[in-house]
Design a protein that fits this description.
Pfam families: AlaDh_PNT_C, AlaDh_PNT_N
GO molecular function, one term: oxidoreductase activity
Number of strands: 16
Strand order of the largest sheet: 3-2-1-4-5-6-16
Bound molecules: nicotinamide-adenine-dinucleotide
Oligomer: single chain
Number of helices: 11
Helix content: 25-40%
Catalytic activity: NAD(+) + NADPH + H(+)(in) = NADH + NADP(+) + H(+)(out)
Radius of gyration: 22 Å
Largest sheet: 7 strands, mixed
EC number: 7.1.1.1
GO cellular component, one term: plasma membrane
Structural class: alpha/beta
Amino acid sequence: PTIGVVRETHDGERRVALVPKIVPSLTAKGFDVVVEAGAGLGALIPDAAYKEAGAQIGDAWSADVVVKVAPPSDAEIARLGSGRRLIGFLAPRNADNQIGALAAAGVEAYAVEAIPRISRAQVMDALSSQANVAGYKAVLVAANESTRFFPMLTTAAGTVKPATVLVLGVGVAGLQALATAKRLGGRTTGYDVRPEVADQVRSVGAQWLDLGIDAAGEGGYARELSDDERAQQQQALENAIKGFDVVITTALVPGRPAPRLVTAAAVEGMRPGSVIVDLAGETGGNCELTEPGKTVVKHGVTICSPLNLPATMPEHASELYSKNVAALLELMLDENGTPAPDFSDEILAEACVTRSKETP
Ligand code: NAD
């Protein structure tokens, strides 16, 4: 069977779905890897590196399984054609997703977002691998925008107090943000609506902010808050946020708009020169004053809403994603080394969002 590694065309997307390092393990499993010319360039990987690793440069779109990062455009779906398999981020919970178009085109598509979050699937968990990148980079964005130091400095010219950093929403991205801010010398605090997160927050040297709201939902995710809970949360956060130099927000509820955690009034209450980095811009933002994709200054507070942060670190983001993709590919093989997904396996059953009539 052939695996096609295609060139990403989405604006700003610099990642690639398979890096050369992973190719030998796939060829050892009997796959032929075909790479579209220039597929790795965004991640600084030349075609020659793929060839050295045992891949060919050629028509990746005709492969049995096409692997991608960003959701395919209409033109890309037309190139895929009937009977192909596709693995990638397909945004299955977004209203404007391409799942219907993929089904109509006869493509058997696997959305990495739909992989269940069970221990066995951890190695394939692309949401986690990329959230880690985003959480790390969010802190660097904040530090870059900040007018203050993160660490405490004791110098002949005086002592500088450490920055206080609050992370709202402590899933994978939030936990990495706390750890990264700590490494930079910040004084860190974490908040989430899933009480089980408290121990994880403490384990990375941060304080736990308890607002008494428990909204643990299914599958390790949060549920949406009721109107009353939301009002209570916004009020409590408005009081808490005042004391922080940096606020990083990562709160998401699957399939829903991002929860509004930081009101305009809360921003107004912050000290001028403070920074908010909102990682939830893609679904509307956690801060009322966020403008997705932009950096704005409101009431003296800099509010950044970078989109697709993992694409800004394409080397390591691609490397981690490749591991996820390779693990899913291996799971699709039957005992003869042929891709023949066994849909009694919950990982494949849930990840597969369109079933083709033509694929066996
Ligand atoms: P996510 O991206 O869906 O959400 C980010 C965080 O926002 C979550 O912690 C969520 O509780 C929080 N949140 C949602 N609404 C909120 C609100 N109103 N106020 C404050 N916080 C709010 O989450 P994620 O990073 O994908 O991870 C969710 C959980 O799944 C984590 O606990 C993680 O450890 C677990 N997980 C398990 C596996 C596995 O077992 N395979 C893999 C990855 C993640």
